[in-house]
Amino acid sequence: MNQPVSAMTKSRFLDEEVRFSGRYSKNVVATLAETFRPYRTITILSLLVGMVARLCLLSTANISGYWADSLCQNAAYCHAPPHIFNGFGNNEFLWLLSIVIGIGFVCNIFFRVSISRTGAKAVSTLYDEVTMRVSRFPMEFFDKTPVGRIMSRFSSDYASIFRMAGGPLGEFLGLAFDLIATLILMSLASFYYVPIVLLACLAYFGLYKLHTPTMRSGRRQYAAARSPSVAHFAETVQGARLIKVYGKSVNFTDRFENQVGSLARERLSVAFSSQHYSFHMAIVTALLLLLTGLSGIWLVKTGRVSAGSLATAFTFILIVSTTIQQFFEWLANFEEALTGVERFDHYLRRPLEAGGALPLSAQYIPSVRRTKSAEAVTMPKSAELSVDHLWLRYGPELPWVLKDLSFTLRPTEKLAIVGRTGSGKSSLIQALYLMYVPDEGRISINGLSPDLSLAEADHREPLKAGKIRLDEFRKMIGLIPQDPTLFQGTLRDNLIADESGASDEKIWAMLRSIDLEHWVKSLGQGEGLDYPIEERGGNLSAGERQLICMARCFLSECPLIITDEATSAIDPASEELLVKALETHTRGRTLIIVAHRLSTVRSCDRVLWLDKG
Ligand SMILES: Nc1ncnc2c1ncn2[C@@H]1O[C@H](COP(=O)(O)OP(=O)(O)OP(=O)(O)O)[C@@H](O)[C@H]1O
Ligand SMILES: [Mg+2]
After folding, report:
1. 34 CA distance to ligand 1 centroid (A)?
2. CA-closest residue to ligand 1 atom 6
3. What's the CATH code of the domain at 42?
4. What percent of the chain is predicted at pLDDT more than 70?
């Protein structure tokens, strides 16, 4: 249990975390552009208003310069202000400054609020789409990706994008506008200082380029190093009881400290390289100010610039050097968000499960096939299931679990599947759901098999003869699973599995028919269907969870019902109840019972014995 981190992360069953290197790919930029596409009008408007705001606020330096020149027009070092300021006295200059500051202030507020709101909304669409896609990934992805790694993408990586889009993006753009506005306004005040600004831009850009590779790779390593500790933490919390029972707390704590230690080292190295970068920036700023001061004295003495315009230019140089420095520091922060986009984009472009399709509302990467939102399928009453020469394994490097399996189940027939532990019973069920795509063979219900072709066709096109959409195919099969799974929510939410949403009357009628009404009414403080279910049904016993899963399955009225060791967690009385309920509610339906106990399979028409697939 005390293995080093590197040994733990390398596994035959787990994929290695993808580590990005080099420049950001074009996909990252394309995804970012797509994120803002639905909001382009408001984004462009906000940017324009933002530019006006910065021009107004910074032009106060020019106006003050002209005001100073107008006060000392007769001195040798003062030049006359431009003609539009003819007749301007102190009052006029004060009014002009107040108006310009007022406009700048209002525009700036609009820009900041609007860009933050738009950024937050745009980034949420990216989150929604990635969630939608991940839910359609093949099961192999979930088998081979530790949960902590997925959680880390949806928490820390998303947080870095959201943080940037929700606020600092405005800061970053504001600084870019400051730079442009400064260049324009400074050229108006005195052209002599433009080369200094350009020199400053070049020097800061050079520094940025010099430090970027180290900082970028540090940030990527840090992002990747988060996943193992999150994964380990999640696993520890889930297994807290067992860890206590076996007294393994020390081992788990050591492993966690190990992982957090390496995470802290990555974080420190990121912090060190950004401090290093800031230090170099500060040196360049100091040198530029020295250069401006010395050249300014010479320019005024030789009469090349007026005292007013020198003051304006000096203000600008002061502003501009800190602005450029901050701009490149923010650019580094912006890159952190880009690392998050890169990691999100990686999920955005992963292939969906075979036969899976996105709803038409899906926005990103239009080439991926999408489908209309699910229509109400007219569910057949019973199903003829045909399994034809089925071969299945969980990965190309793993052994066969099902080998050339064939059988047909006529409508209303009841089949028992028996076999030793690990013989492949649950795997057969996964295959029937097409959770794993069989290497060979065909599965069909009533002559219809799911369309697994990954053509980039739109699902609005009529399907080929004998084909059905994967989600519609799955809806025809109801399952009482071996591991009864419930979700956080009310009992009602857990009982209604499909979108049709059974009414309360229907739910109570079902509960009554399987003798669960009294038990449900006695739950909690008589909350009935509103009884809260905790994460993974933690506040119910395994047997109670199994009974709820049974009611859920019957309510979905599927023509083919499968029970996988459904009696494993319940007492003999409840088992009798389940067997009786099965008989009543599967009358006229096709039924598959996976069981160890012969008592459960007594009523079946046929028995399938599985032995190592
Ligand atoms: N996700 C998976 N990845 C790799 N191998 C798996 C996976 N799930 C099951 N297996 C392997 O497939 C084989 C069959 O497992 P399966 O769960 O189908 O057995 P079972 O007949 O349902 O057993 P039990 O009676 O214990 O429920 C086992 O050897 C198991 O190790
Ligand atoms: Mg099983």
Report:
1. 42
2. 394
3. 1.20.1560.10
4. 89
